[in-house]
Amino acid sequence: MSMHFTLRIDRRTSASQYSSHDPERSSTTSDAGDGQRPTRTAMFGVFGVAAWIVCAAAFAIAYHAHERTVYVWDFYNFPRKFDALVRLTHQGIAPVLRHVRLSLNSDYTDVPAVLLLPAGLIGGPGRAAYLAGVAAEYGAVAMIGMFMLFRSIVARSAEREQVLATSAALLVAALLPHFWLPILRGYPDVLGMGVLAILLALQVRRPMWERPLTHALGVGLAIAGLLLFRRWYAYFVIAWAVAVVGDLAYVMLRRRLDGAPWRAVRGLAASGLVAGAAAALVMYVALSPARIHAMATTSYRTLYAGYRSHGLGAVLAVDWAWLGAATALLALAGLVFARRYWHARAALVLAIYTVVGIGLFQHTQDFGMHHWYGVMPVLAVCVMTGVYGLITSCARASARVSMTAAVGLL
Q: For strand 19-20 and strand 7-8, is the pairing parallel, antiparallel, or unpaired?
C-alpha cells in the first residue's frame, strides 16, 4: 500500500498527539525552502478567483439575456427579495437591516439576498444582476471549497507537477450542469456547498480535536450562518458532525493515538461544546422563541410527505435522472482511483458524510436540484479524482493531452 494510505504519530502535536500522514503538512516543509512558491500560489489563487468572478457573471448575464421563461414560486422567490432590498438601499442601510431582521423568522429569509447587495449596487435591481451575483459571489466560495477539499485529499498526496491534470479536474467540476442548473434557475444554495466543502477539508487536513477552540468558535458561527441562510442545510450539518465523530472513532479503533486517547475525546467534546454553544447563541438571538419551538417540534417528514417518492426504485430513478451517465462514470472512475490517491481518514469522513446526509434528507423528502448541493462536495471530488486519475495514468504527454480532450467532451 502506498505511503499516503498510512497513518503515523506526530509527537509535535500537543492536543491529541495524533496526526495522519497528512500531505498538507508534509508538503509544507518542502515549500518552506522555496520562498517564491507561496507567493506564486497566492497570485494564482487571486487571479483564479478574479477570473471566475468575471467569467461566471458574464455567463449568467448572457444566459439571462436568452431566457424565455416565466418563473414562479421558488424560482422567483429570491430574485424578488433581492430586487426589493436593492430598491430599499435608496432609503439607507437601516431599513435594509430592519427588513432582513424581520425576515429571519420566515422559512425563506432575506439573508441570501442581502449578501448579494454588492452585485445589486453595481448592476441594479433585476434578475440579471441577481444571477450574476449568485454565480460570481456564491459560486466563487463553492469553487474555493471544492479546490480546498480536492487539494486536501488528492493533489497534495499525488504528483505535484501534474498541473494539467489538476487544472482539467477543476475545470470539469466547474462546468458540471449539476453545479450550474440551480444557479441559473434562481436558487442561491450553492454558497452552502462551498461552506460544507471547507468544513470537510479542514477536518481532513487536521482533525477538530487537534485544533484550538477558536476554530470551534468559527465552526459554530459557520453552522449558524448556514441555518439562517437556508434551513435544509441542517441535515448536512448533522452529517458533518457524525463524520467528525466517526473520524475519531476510527482513529481510536486503529490505535493511532499516542498514549492519550481520552485526551482526544475531551478535545473533541470541548470543541463540540464551543461550536454548539456559538451556533445556539446566534440562533437564539436571531430567531423568536416561537420560531425556535416550531423548528424543534415540527415533523418535517409529515409536512413534506407530498415531496417524497415511495419505494427504492422510484427514489433511484429520480436520483439517476439528476446524476446522468457521464457524471456517474467520472465519479465511478474517481472511486476507482481513490485507492491510489485518497488516504483512509479522508475516505471515511466523506463516506460517513454522504451516507448520513442522503439518508437524513431522503427520509424527509426527495432531493430537489438545489438540495443536491449538500452532496456536491463529495460528488465533485469524486469527479475531479476520476479526471485527475485518468489523465495522470497516461505515460506520454501527448496521451495526457488527448485524455484531457476526451474527458472534456463528456
A: antiparallel
